[in-house]
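Readers of this paper often ask what the protein records in our data store actually look like. The remainder of this section carries one protein's record, kept here as part of the documentation.

:::
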Amino acid sequence: MASLRSPISGLLAFLLVAGLASAPSSVRAGAAPQAKEAGPPASEQTPERRSREQVLDMLFAQLKAAKSREAAEGLEGAIRKVWMASGSASVGLLMSHGLKALAAKDYEDALFYFDEVVSLAPHYSEGWNKRSAVHFLLNDYSAALADLEHVLRLEPRHFEALAGLAVILEDLGDKKGALDAYRRALELDPWLEGVPARIRHLKPEVEGRGI
């Protein structure tokens, strides 16, 4: 597998750090929230699911309208917390162990815990998202892409998953696919760190420099 170029590697590092930093404190510390098991698929519009989507709709609208980096970072963090909320005590505990292993670069243990998460809660996008990151770090791009497909099926507005997809496609040489994914991510989050620079880099190569 080809090694990552430094700008792309830096973007991946940012996405991973942002995801870890925005995990709820109960998850980072290993405490499991007291709640029922992970919820139904997004297609089942329960009142709880509708409420969650309404919160995300509001946060995404505010993110698009944000006037400063500080405001955007707060909204990004709020969106990540919604994504991270599993509604499951057991999933929360497994995620806490997986996140700690990932932060410690113990990828074998992280993969074990995230495997358990996606098995127990296949409708929980962050299990797939974090496992995709581990697969990527282990240079298993095929598995990483498969997991990102699950993330984006569950959370089509997951700007970090789209940016992660773009990183992989760019490293595999699919510059057009990477550019498209970066643009989709930036449309959702105009303040997404590192993405405008990748678009500026790729656009002349994919679309030419114009007249």
